[in-house]
Amino acid sequence: MTGAVDEVVADRYPTRSSVRVGIEPRHDPVVWVRDDRGGPLAGDDVDRFDCDGFLTVESLLAPDIVADLRAELDRLRSDPVLAADERSISERDSGQIRSIFEVHRISTAFAALIADPRLVGTARQLLGSEVYVHQSRVNFKPGFNGREFYWHSDFETWHAEDGMPTPRAVSVSVALTENLDSNGSLLIMPGSHRWFVSCPGETPPEHYRSSLQQQVIGTPDDASLTHLADQHGIRQITGPAGSAVFFDSNCMHGSGSNITPYSRSNVFIVYNSVENTLVAPFGAAAPRPTFIASRTFDPV
Amino acid sequence: MTGAVDEVVADRYPTRSSVRVGIEPRHDPVVWVRDDRGGPLAGDDVDRFDCDGFLTVESLLAPDIVADLRAELDRLRSDPVLAADERSISERDSGQIRSIFEVHRISTAFAALIADPRLVGTARQLLGSEVYVHQSRVNFKPGFNGREFYWHSDFETWHAEDGMPTPRAVSVSVALTENLDSNGSLLIMPGSHRWFVSCPGETPPEHYRSSLQQQVIGTPDDASLTHLADQHGIRQITGPAGSAVFFDSNCMHGSGSNITPYSRSNVFIVYNSVENTLVAPFGAAAPRPTFIASRTFDPV
């Protein structure tokens, strides 16, 4: 199954224009089917995800699996062939590797992880359909000089730049190192997934080449962020290696810099519903490369 | 009383050379006199300061005093005459005011604060002598794009660039806004004050002009920071407006960036012992301006 880029789909989440900036209610559900399909999550956990837009799991992966994935990550980061690959993204200042995309196609260890029932089963349960991998990557926030990720909704970017019609996608971030309160852990605004923040500015051509290093276009205006933070607060997600957080594609999130000596690595997988496959971008001239936004939609 | 810049004093804390980099034990006490002079701190608190190198006080200032000082800070930050004064330091990127130095000479409200017995009395008690104000400033870390302060020991800079002979100085930082776990609050390594980290690199002329925006020279090497963090851990100091932290001049500390909408302001006062007045800099060609490092040593 591949994407029909020229398909016409109504844009219910307009963004990246000079006209419209602000906060709109979300038009779509968060949990798409409430019957019990035997997914991994208990009803209370589904309710919490629905309410907060995210759910933390203290120990999703056992220590030996985490150790294997970290060793694999170290191998990938020191692979000179991969360093020259467009799927490797470097820090703007230091040149250190910041992310490696499509990691489930690069590594059998990460390929096994995306098919793990605790991950993909949760995505199916929340989205009420079969799912495919929209994006996978490992993120590496180095110690001493790890840069921040500014506030953003992933869905805003995926809608504008990739042509994802609705926020019927769920991400999971699995910690491969400890997330401390001091080393630039994920900041998230609980409940923010209920609002769509239209972002100012037109998307420049090949925007992803700079935005994956530091995003400027596609970031919310100060007034919208202040409103959301005042309404919903900010939660910092900490936890040991092996812990995970599932989060809705439209959560407002970001992370601060990391000056501690402790680097922070995680693997990030996006499951999208097979009923929500990509069309033409809603806010960009051309879709991003398929290593960032898959245009094959084969169910996991 | 003014400083004898040409006085010869042995350098027991060498730094800023290409030869010597690493960690040395501190040669001086932290608490200088242990008899009870009737200072504000209880014996347990003195012991904690001695051990950790810092002491937090949950509510040092009453809410109405905090409100007055915040209003005064807002007035200072919007004063165009002061914005053009060399004592105002701006953020490198945005041009927003980051710090205002010598604030106790600019503002009667802040002048009253430095003479408050809860502040100056604590300094006298810990340092075992009369004290004078080596430096005062207000720091303003804006929301959305507040930059980090990298790891440093204040004493390392004051010794190298100002000619402070020994770490017989204590700082107090009073929060004028809430310090959250997410808005770039102070990070400190408890117990690190017992070690002096000699820093690589020679001090360039007029170094303060860049270092007050972002410090590069006079920052510890990665190996020393990793050793200290592994040994001592990292504590993040959070608390409401009006809370305070007293800390030894040689604590290793820093803070991450602030992407939240919540700006973070504090007033920072350094009390130095009148028995530890400045001489010629130990690691720079000329002393820094007196608005950064006072060369009048009149007791408070």
Automatic annotation (TrEMBL), chains A, B:
<comment type="subunit">
    <text>Homodimer.</text>
</comment>
<keyword id="KW-0408">Iron</keyword>
<keyword id="KW-0560">Oxidoreductase</keyword>
<comment type="function">
    <text>Involved in the biosynthesis of 5-hydroxyectoine, called compatible solute, which helps organisms to survive extreme osmotic stress by acting as a highly soluble organic osmolyte. Catalyzes the 2-oxoglutarate-dependent selective hydroxylation of L-ectoine to yield (4S,5S)-5-hydroxyectoine.</text>
</comment>
<comment type="similarity">
    <text>Belongs to the PhyH family. EctD subfamily.</text>
</comment>
<dbReference type="InterPro" id="IPR008775">
    <property type="entry name" value="Phytyl_CoA_dOase-like"/>
</dbReference>
<keyword id="KW-0479">Metal-binding</keyword>
<dbReference type="GO" id="GO:0016491">
    <property type="term" value="F:oxidoreductase activity"/>
</dbReference>
<keyword id="KW-0223">Dioxygenase</keyword>
<protein>
    <recommendedName>
        <fullName>Ectoine hydroxylase</fullName>
        <ecNumber>1.14.11.55</ecNumber>
    </recommendedName>
</protein>
<dbReference type="Pfam" id="PF05721">
    <property type="entry name" value="PhyH"/>
</dbReference>
<dbReference type="InterPro" id="IPR012774">
    <property type="entry name" value="EctD"/>
</dbReference>
